[in-house]
Amino acid sequence: MYIPKLLKYSLTFAAQDFQALDYFTQYSNSSSVTTDLPNFGLKSEHSWSSFLQDIQDLNDKSDDTRYKLIFLARHGEAWHNVLGSLPNWYEISRQDTYKNYTLFDDDLTPTGESQISKVHDYWINELNNGAPYPQVFYTSPLRRTLHTYHITWGVENGSAIVVENLRERYGIETPEERHNKTWISDYCNVCEFEKGFAQDDELWKPDEQESKKHVRKRAKEWIQSLFIRDEHIISVTSHSGTIKQILKVIGHPKHSLQPGELIPVVVKGRKSHN
């Protein structure tokens, strides 16, 4: 299995401008499903070894740019995805429970667990075929993403970094409210937290929803944080709305992920000279 070496850069590197590069067929085909494609959709003119060498060479070439391969994964089907089609969802979504369902920071459904089990199998197959193993793992703090991370990678994988900026658009609906830090730590004991992660959810409000513009702002902040780190092969477990905003920030064509889907993106970050 190919495991690329870490690149060592100064932590003063601060990227401000981002550009998605066209290495994968999903870039130009928004209907493609990654898990139906060999090599995560890597274009046929590339092998994994040639692609990774390209990334290495590009990173070695300039002090002003960095290149990252990011696997963006949406959580599997959760209960709010099922109940969201109910005609009175507007009222239901403000409750912590509905009938026998827990909506507050809701979990995966059995279908969602099955979806992510298939993603796990796909990863194993592609890793055996030469795909690179991520050097760092990030996840949203919501339960459905933590559960997705567990099934995809297994607790023996090591630490995932829990990041507030990767959560779904927050406010009003209880599935978007998170548990406290202690609960998350108990649920995912292989997880670590970004610096400054609050004990309680200080962002979610019962009467105010976050704007899409603000989701995009925090998506950019998270991407900027990637470019001051050495890792260049990255796994992310997040949400549809957040992933849409990440794609906007990097200038990637629209690609709407269904529950349990993922997309690889290559991102060029350019250093600010201001």
From TrEMBL:
Keyword DNA repair applies: no
Pfam families (UniProt xref): His_Phos_1
UniProt organism field: Wickerhamomyces anomalus (strain ATCC 58044 / CBS 1984 / NCYC 433 / NRRL Y-366-8)
Cellular component aspect of the GO annotation: cytoplasm
PANTHER family for the chain: BROAD-SPECIFICITY PHOSPHATASE YOR283W-RELATED, HISTIDINE PHOSPHATASE FAMILY PROTEIN-RELATED
Alphabetical UniProt keywords: Glycolysis, Isomerase
InterPro entries: His_Pase_superF_clade-1 (IPR013078), His_PPase_superfam (IPR029033), PG/BPGM_mutase_AS (IPR001345), PGM_Phosphatase (IPR050275)
Protein name: Phosphoglycerate mutase
GO molecular-function term, one example from the UniProt record: phosphatase activity
Keyword Isomerase tagged: yes
